[in-house]
């Protein structure tokens, strides 16, 4: 009997950081919505049943707990990607022309997903944008958390009030990324299996 060894798609460290990040984002977004409801930026609020914390103080505690998980896990993800060379292999180079081609193929339902080890240009751009937005969310979050301790960062972001808007729109972009990500997983379910078992 011949056994076929499956190729590793996602190493263990990547799967761990992926799922820890998913947990951290769930905590931060739902607690962040409760914090937002206490002092809305726009003429709407989030449904309380979708928020975490129960009240402002509880939401802040959850948010700070999620912040440490998100920040430390994200830093580990970035460092391992950079020092292992994975970042360059998976996300580089970026090609605007190929992005348009792959995006059109995706919209037409013709984008190939035969080899999950390699990202198409839409995936590359989406992940790079998500990383940049995550960094922006962390930096703006630092200003909101410790504004006095980070005066230069506060100034670069346009002040405390502007940092709130930056933080909100960064969160919105990440939530949008997650929604699209989940839709793609539903369309190509073996990507979920690969992220669970690595193969």
From TrEMBL:
Keyword list, A-Z: Cell membrane, Electron transport, Heme, Iron, Membrane, Metal-binding, Transmembrane, Transmembrane helix, Transport
Pfam families, sorted: Ni_hydr_CYTB
Residues annotated as domain Cytochrome b561 bacterial/Ni-hydrogenase: 10-198
Transmembrane segments: 12-36, 60-80, 125-145, 165-189
InterPro entries in the record: Cyt_b561_bac/Ni-Hgenase (IPR011577), Di-haem_cyt_TM (IPR016174), Hydrogenase_cytochrome (IPR051542), Ni-dep_Hydgase_cyt-B (IPR000516)
Topological relation to the membrane, as annotated: Multi-pass membrane protein
Subcellular location: Cell membrane
PANTHER family: CYTOCHROME YDHU-RELATED, NI/FE-HYDROGENASE 1 B-TYPE CYTOCHROME SUBUNIT
Family the UniProt entry places it in: Belongs to the HupC/HyaC/HydC family.
Name of the molecule in the record: Cytochrome b/b6 domain-containing protein
Organism annotation: Serratia silvae
């Amino acid at each position: 009997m011949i056994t076929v060894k499956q190729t590793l798609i996602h190493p263990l460290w990547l799967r761990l950081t992926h799922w820890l990040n998913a947990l951290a984002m769930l905590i931060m977004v739902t607690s962040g919505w409760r914090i937002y409801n206490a002092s809305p930026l726009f003429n709407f609020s989030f449904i309380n049943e979708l928020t975490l914390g129960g009240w402002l103080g509880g939401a802040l505690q959850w948010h700070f707990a999620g912040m440490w998980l998100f920040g430390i896990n994200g830093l580990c993800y970035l460092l391992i990607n950079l020092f292992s060379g994975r970042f360059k292999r998976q996300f580089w180079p970026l090609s605007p022309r190929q992005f348009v081609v792959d995006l059109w193929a995706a919209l037409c339902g013709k984008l190939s997903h035969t080899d999950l080890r390699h990202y198409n240009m839409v995936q590359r751009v989406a992940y790079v944008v998500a990383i940049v937005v995550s960094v922006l969310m962390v930096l703006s979050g630092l200003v909101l958390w410790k504004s006095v301790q980070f005066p230069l960062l506060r100034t670069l972001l346009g002040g405390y009030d502007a940092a709130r808007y930056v933080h909100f729109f960064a969160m919105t972009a990440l939530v949008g990324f997650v929604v699209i990500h989940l839709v793609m997983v539903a369309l190509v379910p073996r990507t979920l299996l690969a992220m669970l078992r690595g193969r």
